[in-house]
Amino acid sequence: MERKLVLRVVLLFAVCLTRSLASGTDGKTSLHSNKTLPRSTSTNERLTVYRNEYAELGTTVTLNCTNTKIAWRDMFFVIWKIHLQDKECMIAVAKNDSDYDTCQDGKKLNRTSEGTYHLIIPNFSVQDEGNYTCDISYQSGGSVENIKVSAFARPDLSGWLESEHGHTVAVCEAKGKSAASIHWETPWNSSSPIIQASKTQDKLFTVISRLHLPRHASHTNLTCSATANDSKHTKTRFSSFTFRDTHVKWPTILVGVCATCSIVALLTGFYIMRKNVIALSVFRKICCKPDISASNEEKPQQPYDPEELQPYASYVQRVNSIYNSSAELFNA
């Protein structure tokens, strides 16, 4: 009888030891063994919560896992399972294990000394839209929160004035993730504006509204507002209208360009003519100079005449000879 009792005690001890080894040593939780996620060790019922959140494009988004503040010493693990349009990934931390991140896109899990646990998403974009599931487990319980995160953007609104057939036209342009609705606020009864909508390759919508102003109407009290057609219905207003008339600027620019081209062409022509004149004068000098020297060289050399060297003496001698001959004739 005693032997059977001892065998039962040994068998019971072996079963308990096997379960302890299977569940981990000293209550440690692993995130990396066999790539499987840990399960909560608490026997309390886990609460599952569903909610929607909206994030503005280009901002840093903070997702809170739970409103309950839990000290890190009481924590087992926090796991964020992220399901996006083009990928699925996971970010997790555990008390007795290293951090785990398969997203590698700037998202990070942040825990504070007050016992809060957040997921930080920097520079939120359309690619970050999706479902975010936070699985948190601690000594006194645990919870699962499924968060659907959608992006929204305030309409990028701009406006200007144009002149069309002698009438003033106010133009309002709204760009955003969704096609915005444009509404005009005027001190007079305005006519129906002309609406044009288009979509770019970046999946952004552009809506243009053109409003013809009555004659002698002032645009100082004119305002256009754009409301995004999404769940947030964000609204943007614009009232600083100024003229941006391209019909007046282009002729002025063309006249200036033509005048500049004419001046450049005229100066170029003068430069070419001056260069040709200089080249012609140099050509004449080069061509004519050898002819003159050649004519000088070809001229026959005159014989030496002593009378050319002493013209006055020769003249006096001849005059004297004629005078003497005349005197002898009269004396005879």
Helices and strands, with pairings:
Elements: H1 2-23, E1 47-56, E2 61-64, E3 75-84, E4 88-94, E5 97-101, E6 108-111, E7 117-121, E8 130-138, E9 141-152, E10 156-164, E11 167-176, E12 181-185, E13 194-199, E14 205-212, E15 223-227, E16 235-238, H2 246-298, H3 306-309, H4 311-331
Parallel strand pairs: 1-9
Antiparallel strand pairs: 2-7, 3-4, 3-8, 4-5, 6-7, 8-9, 10-11, 11-14, 12-15, 13-14, 15-16
Pfam families: V-set
Signal peptide: 1-22
Family: Belongs to the CD200R family.
Classify the fold: give the CATH topology of the domain at 27-151: Immunoglobulin-like
The helical percent reads: 25-40%
Tell me what portion of residues adopts beta-strand conformation: 25-35%
Unreliable parts:
15-30, 32-43
**Average pLDDT:** 76
Assembly type: single chain
* Inertia-based shape: elongated
- The total of beta strands comes to 16
Q: Strand arrangement, largest sheet?
A: 1-9-8-3-4-5
Annotated CATH architecture of the domain at 27-151: Sandwich
Number of helical segments with 4 or more residues: 4
Transmembrane segments: 250-273
Protein name: Ig-like domain-containing protein
Subcellular location: Membrane
Family: Belongs to the CD200R family.
